[in-house]
Amino acid sequence: MKEELREEIIRLKKEKNAAILAHNYQLPEVQDVSDFVGDSLELSIKATKLSNKVIVLAGVDFMAEQAAVLNPEKIVLHPEKGATCSLANYLTLKVAKAYKEKYPDIPLVVYVNSYLEVKAISDYIVTSANAVEVVKRIDSPRILFGPDRNLAEYVAEKSGKEVIVVPQESHCYVHSHIISKEDMILAREKYPNAKIAVHPETPKEVRELADFIGSTSQMMKYACSCESNQVIIGTEIGLVHRLRKECPGKEYIPLNDAAICRFMKQITLKSIRDSLRDMKNIVVVDENLAKIAKEKTTKTYELVGIKL
Ligand code: 13P
Ligand code: SF4
Questions:
Q1: Among 5, 37, 127, 268, which residue's CB has the most CB atoms within a 10 Å radius?
Q2: Which fold, 2-84+264-284?
Q3: Which residue, judged by its Cα, is nearest atom 3 of ligand 2?
Q4: pTM over 0.85, yes/no
């Protein structure tokens, strides 16, 4: 069944002039049928470099929305509408506006894990891969940052700036509630020679015990190139598949086997096949808001030397 779906998707990609971009957390079979696998930053850049008419974004909805924002001339498909991100839902337009009113002179930096209406009223749009570098370059000692209290705290530590979290309670349930300090302690005991890489959405008590902190693709590069042959992966387990496939010869161990994002895993070969075959679940964005969000993204990326 999987093989039949895979073949049908490969045929449909040619027929529709489509490319599949998959996030590092996607199911192994989804990664394997994709043209490109990466973190949020890489996916957004890659989407702008493709000549294909159709982009299938295998990830959560804000990623598909961001691909549509950056590529108004392309058709972006998000195979499963229910694949949302619980972290993005913390930063509603109402919350963002309230913070902007309370702190009118402080720039609002939003994490790409947020929705278009919020991005459009932000000053900068960052991903976990570039948040620290962008914030360092913003000409203000204080910034508003959201959603994600852990990433915000990490950005504050690394940039030396005062960071006000928007909103205070925002977090990712996978990195905050499933991955824990106990996992780190157990991993160190069980694998004393291993290196541990974690995502900045993990809490401080986890990050403090890690050898490396970075976005999913930065974790991938570290795991592949570090001196140890055993690397513990402290993020959603999807990244382990990519590592085993693209950087064989080392042992990659999930920090916690249960670190599975139920939203990311809603995208399946069947939902990709259905959306491509029927051209359904086309991402529609407000043209005006999209134009503003694209300008903010371009401005942010330029700050760190990335040209879209
Ligand atoms: P990356 O941009 O590091 O891939 O992270 C996205 C994400 O959703 C983390 O939970
Ligand atoms: Fe959102 Fe967390 Fe899933 Fe990433 S892992 S998509 S932040 S819920």
A1: 37
A2: Rossmann fold (3.40.50)
A3: 261
A4: yes
